[in-house]
Amino acid sequence: MNAHRLLWRAARMVAARAETDAARTLVLKIPGWPGHLPGQHVDVRLTAADGYSTQRSYSVASAADGDLVELTVQNVPGGEVSPYLAEVLEVGDEVEVRGPVGGWFVWRPTGADPVLLVAGGSGIVPLMAMIRARRQAGSRTPFRLVHSVRDPGQRFYAEELRRHDPGDAGLDVAHLYTRAVPDGWPRPAGRLTVADLNTHGWPAEFAPDCYVCGPTGFVETAADILLALGHDPRRIRTERFGPTGG
């Protein structure tokens, strides 16, 4: 691990925007930030006036952009860190950030093989960093994103993924809903299935790089489906998070 990954830095929030009713994106300015790869995460530390401190890890949502870093945080009820970041932190406030962390669950814009991104809920955050890095680099690598959420109101980055930026040519997006669907939606509400990844993913013979992120149960199901469809296990990279600890 490089020395900069162990260094806590002051990060000042310069902007914020809502993603869902329970999640928002924080734009942090971090002087001396060494840069990051899409898929990496950071540790965020909060320290109270009495000296008590606690920290949590959050995936970076943005492509590399100098000393600006975006984190999308979903409020976990009863959590120690996420409620503060999602609801209390204001523009001008500071937190401590350490990173970037991680080297396995990353995509490099020099890659040419097709990419399949499979996300459950807020698991889309590091995958969105990959989409944005692809756009930033002008990459023509074909991407497919399958994002499963409870209902349409839980979609992260909905406007950005809907507007078809010219730099997103070659990016296909499929949304799945587990609890409620929009009127006239062709797929009934339900969990991720073999048919979903068979329809919206890449054929195994295309040898895509697969990135799966979300709650543990979702990730295990998605990885098992990809294996059953014949995908090379060496090309399936997973990142999971538990239901608590926010």
Automatic annotation (TrEMBL):
Organism this protein belongs to: Sphaerisporangium dianthi
Superkingdom, natural source: Bacteria
Record's protein name: Ferredoxin reductase
Pfam families attached to this UniProt entry: FAD_binding_6, NAD_binding_1
Cited SUPFAM superfamilies: Ferredoxin reductase-like, C-terminal NADP-linked domain, Riboflavin synthase domain-like
Cofactor or coenzyme needed: FAD
Stored CDD domains: FNR_iron_sulfur_binding_3
Record bears the keyword Iron-sulfur: yes
Keywords recorded for this protein, A-Z: 2Fe-2S, Iron, Iron-sulfur, Metal-binding
Residue stretches making up the FAD-binding FR-type domain: 6-107
TM ranges: none
